[in-house]
Structures are given as C-alpha cells and as structure tokens.
Write a structure and sequence with these properties.
Blueprint lengths: L12 E4 L6 E2 L2 E2 L3 H11 L3 E5 L6 H10 L9 E3 H12 L4 E5 L2 H10 L2 E2 L7 E4 L7 H12 L4 E3 L5 E4 L2 E4 L1 H12 L4 E2 L5 H11 L6 E5 L2 H11 L2 E5 L6 H6 L7 E3 L2 H9 L2
Parallel strand pairs: 1-4, 1-13, 4-5, 6-7, 6-8, 8-9, 9-12, 13-14, 14-15
Antiparallel strand pairs: 2-3, 10-11
Helix pairs in contact: 1-10, 3-4
Length: 268
Amino acid sequence: MTEQKRTLADIKAFITDMDGTLYVSDRLIPGAVEFISLLRERGYPFLFLTNNSSARAVSYRDRLRRLGIEAETGEILTSGAATAMYLLKETSHRRIFLVGTPALREEFIEAGFVMADQGAADAVVLGFDKTLTYERLKRACLLVNDDAPYYATHPDFTCITDEGLIPDTGAFIEAIKSVTGRVPHVIGKPQSEIVKAALAKVGHKAEVTAMVGDQLDTDMTMANRSGLYGILVFTGETSKRDAAKNRIITPDLLCSSVARLTERIRAL
C-alpha cells in the first residue's frame, strides 16, 4: 500500500528560518509580519531557527521586534546556542578555543565554558566570525592539526546581506581543512543535533512539523533528512531556477514568499 503524501493541512507546528525568509539584513520581507501573526492566531507552535551564530537570541528578538514581528527569546534558537547545549550534554569539553564573535563568546561563557585563548584547549569551536583575525585562524589550525576535538556551529558557505553574499562558516571550514585535512562535527542545519533541539521546543514530531526556509543545502536538506515537511521560499539564497535544476533535494512545497504561504494556510 502506497503511503499517502503529506500536505500542508497535516502540519501542526512550524520551524522558520529568518535570514532570507523573514528579512534580509534590516529589510523586512513583505508578508513576514502577517505570516507570524497567522501562526499565533491559529495556535501553531513555532520556532525561529537560524544558522547564523554571530548573534544571540536576544539580538534576534530585538531585530524581529524592530521590524514589527512579535517574538520572545524562548521562541528563537541559534546554531551557537544549539552548539553550546550539545557540548554541555554530550561531551566533557569545557575549556574551548572559540573562533566567533564577541556575542558568541559571551554566550559560551555564560553557559559555563572557559575560553582557552592561550595554552591547552579541550576542543576548538568554529562559528560565524565577523571579527576573524589571522592570529585566531592560525591558532585554530594549530590546535586542529594537533588533533583537538573540532566542532562548528553550522556549515553555510555564504550569508545573505543587502550588499550581497558574504563568507560564512563553511568558507572558514574549508580554509582550515586546506591546512589540516580535517572537518568539524557540525551542529547546525542540516544536522540532526539541531533538529532534535528544535523539535523539543515546538513539542511535535518531525512528520507533522514544517521547516520554512530559503536554502536548499541547509533548510531543505535538513527537512529531507529528518522527515520535516519542507517549504522552500524564493526570497533569499535560492532562486526558482536553482530549485528547478536540483534533482536531489526535494521540498514538499514551493512558495514565492511567506506571503504566499500565508495565503495557503488561510485557505485550509
């Protein structure tokens, strides 16, 4: 007997990306306010999820509110926070060498980690570091070459901004790989570690939870691998042409934007 294909009507919870899905830099994507308002109105549990580890949940909350989207810190999960949670729960690493922004550093210190800027380190953690210096990249390479356990918050090669695409953590991963031959244990999208953390927050199983995002290689790959209902929007890094050319990653639903998705939900 053939399994019945899921539809939007089967969905009971939503996980939504932010950059490229709800906004780009400080430019709100049309329909984003209405989309989140509708989820609240209909009583859908939902979570704002981002691979961008350069800022903390409170900063994302403030940005969303500034753009007119109601949000609380408990409704936001970043790959940085997910990485700290994973290391605390699954490892004994507490003295880390962190390649990351001051905000990410603060997040790890508050979680109980010690920054190993000098001397021995239990592990290397690589995040999206807009303050990256050659000295810190060099120390990361030396530690990784010396077989230190090695983690990354997320694998994105690019981050979308109003200026265009800029290098993200995936580009740093490749730089370190070219020197050391090693790749990190990645926590963020599309990996299962961040899926488990996100589903725990929305309180539903993957098969009745939708992932709304603009990227094939993270958002939709995560949906495909974990059994989430993948909804791809074309307001960020993926174009309709990109989606049409891809034969491996298959979203369950294509929408021009969250405005169109809102219309689809209203019609249920």
